[in-house]
Amino acid sequence: MNTPALSPAPTPTFPDPVAEAKISAKNVSVFYGAKRAIDDVSIDIPKSYVTAFIGPSGCGKSTFLRSLNRMNDTIAGARVEGEILLDGEDIYRSGMDVVQLRARVGMVFQKPNPFPKSIYDNIAYGPKIHGITGSKSELDGIVETSLQRAGLWDEVKDRLSDSGTALSGGQQQRLCIARAIAVDPEVILMDEPCSALDPIATARIEELIDELRGRYAIVIVTHSMQQAARVSQRTAFFHIGKIVEYGTTSDIFTNPREERTKDYITGRYG
Ligand SMILES: Nc1ncnc2c1ncn2[C@@H]1O[C@H](COP(=O)(O)OP(=O)(O)OP(=O)(O)O)[C@@H](O)[C@H]1O
Ligand SMILES: [Mg+2]
């Protein structure tokens, strides 16, 4: 089943510029060898909202998320069919600069993965390799702004030369978000970014996502219904490789159209 647009949202009385599609996936299937993990999925991901991907384990959320910045390219045997447009440009076209793409569409993983380098270098690395800047003072500025935006600056400003791996789990995850922000991305993909964190660190990341909303298109995969309801404005429910239902988060959680969505959000399976 294809669910190309938002429904069953009421007809808006004026255009909603923040809901404009940043990424348009059209008839996307993803295979691992002969196994089809994503089956003909179409979705428009809005520019200035947070979109949550929910669904039972193994339904393909991470696989689909990785197809949005071609991270599946790094998995042997993985193959993507269909079309994924970023601002109308096919990211799978030949000649696409994948390194550049992954700066535009950044990713934050389940387990914080700072580089075994200083806090400063964790942030400065991307801008350096992408040639955004080489000057020390400009780099200092990017490091400070990125850490500030990620809500980490006050905690680390006096220890920028300490190793990123010496931070707490929640701080490491904010460092990884700062690292993604440092290369001036347009989209940030987060795959269960809080699942390794305690409730306080989780609340901090959720606040952060809310602060970043509007500046970047954000997609978050989560197993927590509460988290999806708190942080997102759009929710897509995945089930066995398909999107069963996609709509405003309030509709999905309070008025789902599909029985399978209802069963999942009420905890009947998953
Ligand atoms: N590298 C891989 N090689 C082969 N099969 C894979 C690979 N990664 C995932 N799969 C399979 O693809 C399907 C979708 O997996 P995926 O990790 O995308 O699910 P998910 O929805 O993210 O699950 P979870 O909620 O447990 O993280 C599963 O059947 C999984 O076993
Ligand atoms: Mg996953």
Automatic annotation (TrEMBL):
Pfam families, sorted: ABC_tran
Gene Ontology biological process terms, A to Z: phosphate ion transmembrane transport
CDD domains: ABC_PstB_phosphate_transporter
Lineage, top ranks: Bacteria, Pseudomonadati, Pseudomonadota, Alphaproteobacteria, Sphingomonadales
Protein name: Phosphate ABC transporter ATP-binding protein
Keywords attached to this entry: ATP-binding, Nucleotide-binding, Phosphate transport, Transport
Matches recorded under Gene3D superfamilies: P-loop containing nucleotide triphosphate hydrolases
Gene Ontology CC terms, in alphabetical order: membrane
Entry annotated with the keyword Metal-binding: no
